[in-house]
């Protein structure tokens, strides 16, 4: 997730700092020729080669490396979807095709990623059960391979790892993240003792674009209130001068400079005499305190935390 850095200038400057990149993946498993079955990492030479011993393990490891795949993953195999029995490069390709606006709504669906049983080698075209190396040509179909998620990926610079708590693969390096059991998701280790816990924080849609955050491939940031949102969506909110959480309305950054400006504007804008003694009840969105304050046409200030992020209740 990302932390929020605030520049205490005249007008607030908010820059989400990339602390956590939460992404979900897919997975697959196997071993063959000179590559042994390896759950989380690269292929390793097997003691008993299954085919032509003139081909070295290194050659099988790099044969077709980064030459196959799709826009989502570089891999040397395709998958047969268990739901519709069709062949796709990856689960994202399946979901994009089967949830297209041109597809009848009754036939739209997502692939059950953990139920993938069959894969097709991109080099020789052999269909086989999920495994890391092809049973026919012996090529390694993905340097990163997860048997649980049926995920293959040759691009190991992503630093993929499988999180048992999340039940899926993520990227960014296992040593850089921790799993919060209450939030039920992975956060940057920088947030380990400071993030506000919210039950199932990632198990909901982004409040701006409505994409399911837990399996999103885009960067996700956690706001001070503990709610989560896409980093790009939060940036777009700032560009439209929206600085409150779309879910709970709590300020997502230090607004003290803005509140000072409100103080000056209210001081220079006296209310008509008939309104000078008018009192209203307000609820502060930042500290959740209910107070009775003097009414002003511009805004009502919370006497507890001095915030103007309030709403009139009566």
The residue fraction in helices comes out at: 10-25%
Low-confidence stretches: 1-53
> Which sheet architecture does the biggest sheet show?
4 strands, antiparallel
Q: What is the number of independent domains?
A: 3
Structural class: alpha+beta
Counting DSSP E segments of at least 2 residues, the number of strands comes to: 19
What is the beta-strand fraction? Answer: 15-25%
Question: What radius of gyration results from the CA coordinates?
Answer: 26 Å
Give the distance, in angstroms, between the N- and C-terminal Cα atoms. 38 Å
The overall pLDDT average reads 84
What does the overall shape look like? elongated
Give descriptors for this structure.
elongated; three-stranded antiparallel β-sheet; 3 domains; Rubrerythrin, domain 2; 314 residues; alpha+beta; four-stranded antiparallel β-sheet; disordered N terminus; single chain
What does this structure look like?
Residues 206-249 form the RING-type domain. Residues 63-139 form the CHY-type domain. One of its GO terms (molecular function) is ubiquitin protein ligase activity. The protein has 314 residues and is an alpha+beta fold. The chain has three domains: 2-22 and 162-239, no CATH class; 35-159, no CATH class; 256-312, Rubrerythrin, domain 2, CATH 2.20.28.10. Helices cover 11% and strands 22% of the residues. It contains four helices and 19 strands. Strands 6-5-7-8 form a four-stranded antiparallel sheet. The chain has a three-stranded antiparallel sheet with strand order 18-17-19, with no helix packed on it. Strand 17 (279-284) and strand 18 (290-294) form a beta hairpin. The longest helix has 12 residues, at 256-267.
